Amino acid sequence: MKARITITLKPGVLDPQGKAIAGALHALGFGQVGDVRQGKFIELDVTESDPKKAEAEIKRMCEQLLANTIIENYAYELEAA
Amino acid sequence: MKASVVVFPGSNCDRDAAVALEAAMGRPPAMVWHGDAELPKSDLIVLPGGFSYGDYLRSGAMAAHSPVMREVIKRAQAGTPVLGICNGFQVLTEAGLLPGVLMRNATLKFICKDVHLRVERTDTAFTRHYAKREVVRFPIAHKDGSYFADEATLDRLEGEGQVAFRYCETDGRITAAANPNGSRRNIAGVYNETRTVLGLMPHPERLADAALGGTDGIKMFLSLVETLN
Amino acid sequence: MTVAARAAKGAHSITDETVAEHGLNADEYRRLLKELGREPSLTELGIFSVMWSEHCSYKSSRLHLKKLPTTAPWVIQGPGENAGVIAIGDGLAVVFKMESHNHPSYIEPYQGAATGVGGILRDVFTMGARPIACLNALSFGDPKHPKTRHLVSGVVAGVGGYGNSFGVPTVGGSVRFHTRYDGNNLVNAMAVGLAETDKIFYAAASGVGMPIVYLGSKTGRDGIHGASMASAEFGEDSESKRPTVQVGDPFSEKLLLEACLEIMAKDCVIAIQDMGAAGLTCSAVEMGAKGDLGVRLDLDKVPTRETAMTAYEMMLSESQERMLMVLKPEKEKEAEDIFRKWGLDFAIVGETTPDKRFVVRHAGSEMANLPIKELGDEAPVYDRPHSASPRLPVIDPASIEPPMPHADALEKLLSSPDLCSKRWVWEQYDHLILGNTVQRPGGDAAVVRVKEGPKGLAMTTDVTPRYCEADPFEGGKQAVAETWRNLSAVGAKPLAVTDNLNFGNPERPEIMGQLVGCIQGIATACKALEFPVVSGNVSLYNETNGRAILPTPSIGGVGLIDDFTNSASIAFKAADELIVLLGETKGWMGQSMYLREICGREEGAPPPVDLSAERRTGDFVRALINEKVVTAVHDLSDGGLLVAIAEMALASGIGAKLYGPPAFLTEHGFWFGEDQARYVVTIKPAQADDLAVRAKAAGVPIRRIGVTHGAALTLPGERELLLNALRERHEGWLPAYMAGGAS
Fold first, then answer.
1. Across the interface, do A20 and B108 touch by the CB < 8 Å criterion?
2. A14 reaches B (C-beta below 8 A)
3. What is the tens place of the pLDDT at every residue in C34-74?
4. Residue C675 in contact with residue C705, Cβ under 8 Å?
5. Using a CB-CB distance cutoff of 8 angstroms, which residues of chain B are in contact with residue A13?
6. What is the pTM of this model?
7. Torsion angle, CA of C11/C14/C15/C18, rounded to 10 degrees?
8. Who has the most CB within 10 Å: B11, C208, C354, C396?
9. What's the rounded Cα separation, in Å, for the pair C94 and C455?
């Protein structure tokens, strides 16, 4: 199965990179851009074909390594490979 | 006194840490490969600076799950002193041995320069040789050194006396200008509850040689030797 | 079926377009056909095109590079290997080289610079040396040019990103801006490593039937035709060349370093070479050609990270962080275990053969069968036509009317892009890691302790491109002389040079003339100063739409200090010391920063270099430093005397009260002239008479020019310059520019 995982900063955590991106967009003339938050996108293949089991695995990966749950949230999508 | 320095793939200040330790202890520390599940008998464990796993994903995130860390965590919980410098501090927060998180510098750039730190308490194994509220000069060299924790955690750290060092001016005043990376409350280093685990972003091992600009750092290693011998 | 048989059947349909796309001209293709005796396969054409590219074969420069002096009693290995090697005593050797990564840095500044650093580090550790320092010389376009800021930001981040992660201190270098680099910024990266003299590893294979081993990261499609790109000018379509830039992985390189040093220590290695430009092709061909052996490669064994890679792609890929090694067969298991431990690939991909052929097999077919010597050391050599640069008139200082007071001129110079503080740059480099940095960036040369001491190594990069444009011969001499001066100014004995020559299109006689003239100048200076060239790199075709860069022959110098605690630095050390000028001043204005920045003129002949005066003065200064006679030392260069004094004051926070110039010089000539072979030193007043006597005996002109004093610079007839205000100007320009402000 293929998992698509998005990791973002929790609301309230300062995101200087997001701020810098917003500034650069404004400088380019995209004045309508408001707040910008940036994160990570991870795509991975798992051999597990049972969707429930795969989901449990992905969740564990996020909790243990892929996201730092003190400051980050994660979301994922699963699809058959 | 016996010390162990853990070497992760990509650690690059392990040598510097070993040199400073040897100068203070009179004998070299054991260099322990991250892949070893075993750790020799140690009075002190050091997690050195560097770019373990290239800082990929998050600084210290992958190193925190190395086989050897299981043993480091056990020892820390049993009271063995652990010192995490720079990347080592990042590993300690990722491993849950210290509260908070180290994030990208406010300037978004890597910074290498000298900073001044105020030593917040001098009754720990790490800081016995410093004077109360002494101002010391250590170099920093990092891109992800901005210390963050939520307000409740920060209040708790202050209340429990777990703040170890703060970025300050040469006269000890805590100001925004003296904060190189945006760390909350100018925090440069923290202890765990029992003050046996210390993590700090600046590099004491890089200022442990008079011929190379200063000895403020050696006092930390001398404090450890004195306490642990 | 063999390649030859397929050729005989007319299976290879190589068109003129294909040949041209590969960067070979008609003559070169004819030569290829003659040497091969038949038509090449596409894979073979690809192999020839990279081996005979300018970048790999040095075909335009080889003839002239022969003029460079490359030997001395302390030189262990001169040019021709991955890096140069010099002995520094106690069984230790210094391995160093400078290399360019220009074209990729324009297209993708971060990765172009990062992979440049990665490449030069590999060149050093492939010889068995642990890298201990990096330097880099960066040239950017006019600050007002729309791309400059983006290039500066990306290049500096890339240099730091790679070096910091790999774990080597970046301790020095230079940054300059000029409109001639607008479309062609330069990144010249230098690495210095330490090894034991009896444990140096070379590239030449030896022994027949020895396993050839692939080490490091997997091969992908990165950088195919990178070598050809470096050998071509940019046109309108350079943006579309983006796919050819490789992505560096400093983490893998750090693992590769440790694994390589371990197998070297365990005596597993017969020969070893890193895979850089032209990847597997260049390293395999050179290993065989140098050892007078043939090489047979089996591409099925090459670790790949992409699927269905063709032989052509595998031979030309420039994926980073890979090495090629000839292994001692009995050590195979030991070597493989070490590489597995570090998580790297280890694969036997071929063997050495007795027949001097380069044979490549893939998926059961022979894809290439070429004569190895013709590919390697018998590539074409050109004697390109060259014309001399026109002589420029000497500018008489008396003909110049200073447009502003000298105090204003100094402020303007110190806040100009070339002379301002580069702290914004070097604070992004970890310059302290490894705990041996004695002198940080900002001085005349970086100084690094050798192991626990007492020896120290000094290193620097220098060149003054505007001098080289005005007079290539004098400019070439000056680049070497200034490098030599900077090393002497910290108390080091200059030992050897690495030269990184950056020029435009050599097929234009005026550009070829610059190259020939500069090489001549470098050779002359190196001979006179006993400062041999032990390694180097040539980067040509640095031009866009026919507009070439300023000729930029970067010189990287390394010197030895017997006791690192006795190195000299530029900062004034105390008030009430005498400031003394050593060397002759005529007030040279031609091609000076004053003439350019203050008068708006880039004119005139550059300052001539008197090599015996350089030698005499430098040796004198070094002796003074060794005997602890002088307290601060700074050599004079861009901006002349007043800029040098300001730099000494700003580094210390101690000001100076300066006396006026001698009557026979104009004021602006005295303060801002760029006469060569000069230093400023400070001494305790009690030493003054003794110093005067010694200088006279040594034949070195000497003049007292002021005293250290207070917190301002004062010169007769000018307003006082408070150091705090001056510091703001000096430190302020670059951060403000990068934040999007000043231009």
1. yes
2. yes
3. 988 999 999 999 999 999 999 889 999 999 999 999 999 99
4. no
5. 103, 148
6. 0.94
7. 140
8. B11
9. 12
